[in-house]
Specification:
Strand content: 25-35%
Shape: globular
Number of domains: 3
CATH class of the largest domain: Alpha Beta
Radius of gyration: 25 Å
Largest sheet: 8 strands, parallel
Number of helices: 11
Distance between the termini: 26 Å
Helix content: 10-25%
């Protein structure tokens, strides 16, 4: 094939609507346009194709990721390799027949989302997977990201670092909740790097290194205005003198933006300027400030390493705009009873929904014991392709769904599944309906589900 070429766009918003391949072409990265490969030409996409793909007679196409749109093959060849994820299928939890709900995680979409963010910057793109990858399962997700090219991971604690090390043995792992002396041997065993958030932690780390002669590194986290964990700016400035020492161990200087979502935000601009001054003091040390939102909206703070977080799970990193991420999580719950409710019966909500006419309810096996917010006034479920409203208040493990207006009453049967999160009812919509955040929704999901991790 021909030498690799770069597409003239970095992300989906800049992509052309149609890409016509009229010669043998290699593309390093994903294609976000509808694509036509003309007769006798060849195309190698080192990524995925999100639009439709048309292959003319005698053309050959190799896709290292996935094809998400319609495929029209008029006599050519097509190989979709999924970057080694094709056969990846992991099942966890109770069996599908015994569980009341099923949680599906699309590993290919996670890899695709990482790549989409990575292509928006010249910096290295790390993955931030706190709280068991936002409750979605850190082991298969870390494995999928490593196979997609991710080399650096951030986790909450050493227990998660151990799981990432098993899934991604050659990766760099940072532990966000820092260091304490009792955990020192585990850091050495796992070759994990603590994120140092205070002078006390740094003193404990120095003591461990002096005794053990361990040569591992660490990140310095500075609070430049977010108000969370981190060293004071003045402390960080003083600690820059450590760079004069051999084997000082500082492998990363990092901070976080308080509000990365608003362009030209004065507070963000102050933080970026302050962090840039610190970076000068730490000349030669890689620097990291940008999260998922800033990757897309604020290129001035990309520095050497960007940190992609919940956007990898399909959560919209650009609120107020179309979600540039692919959906990752699908949650379905089983119908356990269908019953009619007459006017005047006690099961009513604040809107007195059943006051005027007979209604039909489907009770599904999912409630606040599974992580659903107690109040879900605007939540809907997808039943037979239709959006059906939930009753405002769920119980511990039951959620009533109003299915009265479904065109086909036979579509609602005991044992059938309804969709609570998916491509037509996104996790961001669920968060809005339950007055929470998408990260809260995912990280609150319980452990009673049958879980399926798969590559498409």
């Amino acid at each position: 094939m021909a030498p690799a070429v770069a597409l003239p766009f970095e992300n989906q918003r800049e992509a052309p609507k149609l890409l016509v391949v009229c010669r043998s072409t290699d593309i390093n990265g994903s294609v976000f346009a509808d694509t036509i490969v003309q007769r006798g030409c060849s195309l190698h996409v080192r990524g995925s194709v999100t639009g439709s793909l048309t292959i003319e007679l005698g053309a050959d196409v190799l896709v290292d990721g996935s094809v998400y749109g319609k495929i029209t093959n008029r006599g050519g060849g097509l190989v979709v390799s999924h970057r080694g994820l094709t056969a990846h299928l992991v099942l966890e939890g109770p069996s599908q027949s015994e569980a009341g709900a099923i949680l599906k995680v699309n590993l290919t979409a996670i890899g695709f989302n990482w790549e989409r963010l990575a292509k928006c910057t010249d910096a290295e793109c790390a993955a931030v997977l706190p709280c068991n990858a936002y409750g979605c399962g850190i082991d298969p997700i870390a494995d999928a990201l490593a196979k997609s090219g991710c080399r650096t991971f951030f986790v909450t604690n050493l227990a998660e670092a151990r799981r990432v090390r098993a899934a991604a043995p050659n990766s760099t792992i940072y532990v966000l909740h820092g260091f304490h002396s009792a955990a020192a041997p585990a850091f050495a065993e796992l070759d994990a790097r603590p994120v140092i958030n205070s002078a006390i932690e740094l003193a404990a780390w120095d003591a461990f290194k002096n005794v053990s002669q361990w040569t591992g590194g660490y990140a310095l986290n500075v609070d430049t205005g977010e108000g969370g964990l981190g060293l004071l700016v003045e402390e960080a400035a003083e600690l820059a003198l450590r760079l004069d020492s051999l084997n000082n161990g500082i492998t990363l200087l990092m901070s976080s933006l308080a509000d990365a979502g608003k362009p030209n935000n004065p507070q963000s601009e102050r933080q970026v300027a302050l962090f840039r001054e610190l970076r000068r003091l730490y000349a030669g040390v890689p620097a990291s400030l940008a999260s998922s939102t800033a990757i897309l909206r604020n290129s001035t703070c990309h520095f050497d390493l960007v940190r992609a977080g919940s956007a990898l799970l399909g959560i919209n990193p650009t609120p107020g705009s179309a979600n540039p991420m692919l959906p990752v999580v699908e949650l379905q719950a089983r119908i356990v009873q269908v019953r009619d409710i007459s006017p005047g019966e006690s099961l009513v909500d604040a809107a007195d929904r059943f006051a005027n006419r007979r209604r039909r309810l489907a009770f599904v096996s999912f409630g606040y014991g599974d992580g659903l917010a107690r109040s879900a006034k605007n939540l809907v479920a997808i039943v037979d392709g239709y959006r059906c409203p939930a009753i405002e208040h769920s119980s511990l493990d039951l959620l009533p769904i109003d299915v009265t207006d479904l065109p086909d009453a036979r579509a609602v049967r005991i044992g059938e599944m309804v969709t609570l999160i998916g491509s037509t009812m996104t996790v961001d919509e669920v968060a809005e309906a339950t007055n929470s955040t998408a990260r809260e929704v995912l990280s609150s999901l319980g452990g009673r589900f049958h879980r399926i991790y798969y590559a498409t």
